[in-house]
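Work Package 4 report. The design task specified in the project plan requires that, given a folded chain encoded as structure tokens, an amino acid be chosen for each position. We show below one input record used in the internal validation round.
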């Protein structure tokens, strides 16, 4: 009878020992896996931030990163959407929206009556003002440069 109890007790002890070994092994693997996942996630986040906040070394050749022709066209369309005449603030000449209309109405002097839109603060100046700020993205610069406040039609 004692042998039976001892055997049962030994089997029980062996099972516990094996379970404890498995648990230690699994916890170690889990720790390694968790560490790898955290390191990989941190590396990926660092790479994404480097791309997001990267700026070119110079403005030269990078105007297209900041300029938005669509914003200029939208500014002109918005100005001409009403019924009021559009007058050039510099020359006092009446402006028209399209080249065709300017040529039809003004002949050879059409260029001085064609509405053009451009940035109030030049893109290069905006680039120079923001290039050393590590928290300003290229998208932030583009959005500021092409905002309604920075595009004028003349």
């Amino acid at each position: 009878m004692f042998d039976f109890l001892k055997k049962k007790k030994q089997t029980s002890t062996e099972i516990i020992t094996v379970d404890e070994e498995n648990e230690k092994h699994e916890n170690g693997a889990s720790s390694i896996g968790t560490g790898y996942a955290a390191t990989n996630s941190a590396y990926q986040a660092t790479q994404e931030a480097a791309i997001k906040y990267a700026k070119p070394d110079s403005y030269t050749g990078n105007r297209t990163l900041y300029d938005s022709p669509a914003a200029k066209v939208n500014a002109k369309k918005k100005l001409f959407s009403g019924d009021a005449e559009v007058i050039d603030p510099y020359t006092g000449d009446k402006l028209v929206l399209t080249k065709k209309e300017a040529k039809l109405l003004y002949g050879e002097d059409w260029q001085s009556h064609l509405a053009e839109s451009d940035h109030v603060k030049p893109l290069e100046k905006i680039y120079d003002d923001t290039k050393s700020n590590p928290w300003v993205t290229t998208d932030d610069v583009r959005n500021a440069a092409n905002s309604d406040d920075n595009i004028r039609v003349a």
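The mean pLDDT is 85. Validation will be extended to a larger panel in the next phase.
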